[in-house]
Structure formats: C-alpha cells, structure tokens
Write a sequence for this structure.
C-alpha cells in the first residue's frame, strides 16, 4: 500500500493538519512539540489506521467499543485512545486494549475500568476525566464540580492514573469559551493530581481554538480521513 492513492491523500491531509497545528502553536507562543495528534479512525477501515501509523501518527482513537476492540487487535502498533461514551459493561473490555481512556465521566465507571485493568494484568491505565462545559447530556461529561472527586476515586484504585481532562466543545457555540473553561478545570485538577497534565480538546473544526486555550491532545478525524456517513459522530 506504499504509494496507493488513498495513502497519498492521507499523507497530504496529515501534512495539512500538522501545518495547522504548527501555525496555531506559533500564534499562541507555544512549542508544537507539546501537541499530540490523535487520529480518530471511527467508521474508516483498519487499512486507514495502519496508513496513519506509517505516516507518523501512532496515536489513534475510536469512540465505540466493538469497533475499537477490533482495530486495536488488528493494529497493535498504534497507541489506542478510547474517546466515546463509555458503558459500564464495556469498560472492562476497553481497559484491556486502550492506552488512554478519555471519557471517564462518572464514578460508577471507576470500579469497572479498574477491574478490567486487574483482569488484563496490565500496567495502570491512564484516564482523562471528561467534562461537560455546558451540561448537555448528549455529549457526555461530568459537571466541572465533580472532576476532582472522580479523579480521586480513580487514583485510589491504584490501577487507574488520572492523566488530565477532556471535553467535546458544543457544536454551535464559539469553542474558545468552552476550551478556556476546560483549561481552568485542568488547572484545578492538576493542583490535586500533578500528573494530570493532558488537556484533550479540539477536533477538525476547532483545533486552533483548542491550541489557543492550552490543549495538549487534539482528536482529529475528518481533516485526516475525510467525511463520515451521517449519524455516526
Ligand atoms: C469523532 C470524534 C472526534 C473527531 O471529530 P472530527 O470532527 O471528525 O475531527 C473527536 N472526538 C470525539 C469524542 C469524537 O467522537
């Protein structure tokens, strides 16, 4: 698959996204090396996931458990990030293959994830507390006031490591406000858990706003792989 048209197209997209990241970092007075690009591969075939790894994007993310599990098995050379709504009965499975879970948003997921880590006999799992900035239940996320308590519960298991925060910005609103709020929440969490340095924010349409507001991890799907069929987010 060295020089097939799809690989060439994705290579051009990766270059364009890296350019956007570099320009946004420069405008914000930040070092682009602080930014991690996560390629969101949902709905795209495993071949595209492999292409991204070969093109220098080893961090990949999925939002549905079944699809994530298959791709993690087929593309073990990637570092897999689970970014979707997490159901308690699927959390144990996710804990077996994910390098990072971005969507810890309620206390009941803590024992489920911890049990998965124990069963998999793996190293502690990095977890991000997903925050809801506007309280819209559709996108998931904990109220800001609960973030530290959820991280405390995760850390207390000894099997989960609070690594930072994540949010999905409201689609219609100006993302800067949401990302600025997330940055404040991240600082509060870091005061309690100094290792919680990750700020996962920014998608294809709003990565510049995320970088302006301190994001360290960008979750990019469409700008790398193209449009997805409707109904799947
Ligand atoms: C799909 C998805 C993304 C990527 O969105 P794009 O707009 O395609 O870049 C990022 N984060 C989450 C949680 C997603 O579900």
């Amino acid at each position: 698959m060295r020089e097939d048209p799809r690989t060439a197209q994705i290579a051009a997209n990766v270059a364009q996204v890296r350019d956007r990241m570099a320009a946004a970092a420069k405008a914000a007075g930040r070092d682009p090396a602080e930014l991690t690009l996560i390629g969101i591969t949902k709905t795209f075939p495993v071949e595209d996931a492999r292409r991204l790894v070969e093109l220098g994007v080893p961090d990949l993310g999925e939002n549905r458990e079944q699809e994530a599990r298959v791709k993690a098995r087929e593309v073990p050379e990637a570092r897999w990030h689970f970014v979707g709504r997490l159901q308690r009965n699927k959390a144990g499975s996710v804990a077996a293959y994910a390098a990072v879970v971005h969507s810890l948003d309620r206390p009941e997921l803590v024992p489920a994830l911890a049990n998965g880590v124990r069963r998999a006999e793996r190293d502690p799992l990095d977890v991000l507390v997903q925050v809801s900035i506007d309280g819209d239940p559709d996108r998931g996320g904990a109220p800001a006031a609960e973030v530290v308590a959820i991280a405390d519960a995760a850390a207390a298991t000894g099997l989960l490591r609070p690594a930072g925060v994540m949010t999905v910005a409201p689609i219609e609103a100006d993302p800067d406000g949401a990302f600025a709020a997330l940055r404040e929440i991240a600082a509060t969490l870091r005061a309690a858990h100094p290792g919680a340095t990750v700020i996962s924010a920014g998608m294809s349409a709003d990565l510049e706003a995320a970088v302006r507001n301190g994001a360290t991890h960008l979750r990019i799907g469409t700008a790398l792989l193209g449009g997805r069929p409707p109904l799947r987010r």
Summary: The chain has a mean pLDDT of 96. The CA atoms of residues 41 and 48 lie 7 Å apart.
